[in-house]
């Protein structure tokens, strides 16, 4: 137990320093941040502790390339939205009403973009969680019966020219046309580095404003040999991205979303550390575990890619969980399934099966364990926290935790890109 405690403390310090910039380990275990004095440190320095200002609510959705990817997330989002409607008594409530940031990669990026997209003349989100899941299910049906890792799924969208499915859903909507900030990653072959599509960047400079249909095409591209890399350009044509999917480059965008919030003081001026965040990270579900020695004595290329992508997602989960430290039980929730669902019974049955599973928790250097609660139970608990936060904001008279960012003037000086900032941080970590 002493060794486990020491390991926990060491890696909590390391991950907090990398993710959040903590320089003093005492701040982590005191529950504070470099910019937020705790009651203990305030008493010593004679400064009053900062009043509780609420939490920034972050939704993060994993991505991937298999047929089942996105099903768990879609079903979880529908369950969460239904719970929020029931708890608030508002049948028209949508997830974008409760989250301040939505991040998604691969299939998760498509879901995130749909949840926050809005019309030019309407501040309300265009799509509900049910709409987003229905779109995903339609794209999956063609390849659902295939057990091959190179079967159908989200990649089937690219068997039609120019991402026609995305064009039909999003039309000419751009990153600026979102009800909430959205973050969607891809890997840019032109620069050899990850790229993060961001509404914050789009609001600052037209050169970073992309059409949502192109953002989704970029984060889903190149997931197998049937879908090559795609070239997308910003709305003004100034920025060119040769993209392969975010499911490989950044399958779990949670750390990127957290880093974005803590460094974006224009929209989140009071977010200084984990105590100011409320995060739910939804996994994509995991592949069937096959006995060692099967499949001709070695893993195929597609299996190696899948293992690598899932390994990175799991490491991000562990890193974030350790960075949250003792706040992980209340401020950070991870929803993940164990094993692919059975195809028998259709996608709806498979999605419900994943929600009814015991929640999977990552353990540092010890693999995973099954928790006491199901995925559905954790979603209900998180819905309760979201409603509490919304009610707190409605009754609060203090400074707002979130400030809506306005598009910058055309001749304004260009600040450093949040995409570049996140890319540099990940480069330094690696």
TrEMBL record:
<dbReference type="GO" id="GO:0016787">
    <property type="term" value="F:hydrolase activity"/>
</dbReference>
<comment type="similarity">
    <text>Belongs to the patatin family.</text>
</comment>
<comment type="function">
    <text>Possesses non-specific lipolytic acyl hydrolase (LAH) activity. Hydrolyzes phospholipids as well as galactolipids. May play a role in disease resistance.</text>
</comment>
<dbReference type="GO" id="GO:0006952">
    <property type="term" value="P:defense response"/>
</dbReference>
<keyword id="KW-0443">Lipid metabolism</keyword>
<protein>
    <recommendedName>
        <fullName>Patatin</fullName>
        <ecNumber>3.1.1.-</ecNumber>
    </recommendedName>
</protein>
<dbReference type="GO" id="GO:0016042">
    <property type="term" value="P:lipid catabolic process"/>
</dbReference>
<dbReference type="Pfam" id="PF01734">
    <property type="entry name" value="Patatin"/>
</dbReference>
<keyword id="KW-0611">Plant defense</keyword>
<comment type="function">
    <text>Lipolytic acyl hydrolase (LAH).</text>
</comment>
<feature type="region of interest" description="Disordered">
    <location>
        <begin position="389"/>
        <end position="409"/>
    </location>
</feature>
<dbReference type="InterPro" id="IPR002641">
    <property type="entry name" value="PNPLA_dom"/>
</dbReference>
<feature type="domain" description="PNPLA">
    <location>
        <begin position="59"/>
        <end position="258"/>
    </location>
</feature>
<keyword id="KW-0378">Hydrolase</keyword>
<dbReference type="InterPro" id="IPR016035">
    <property type="entry name" value="Acyl_Trfase/lysoPLipase"/>
</dbReference>
<keyword id="KW-0442">Lipid degradation</keyword>
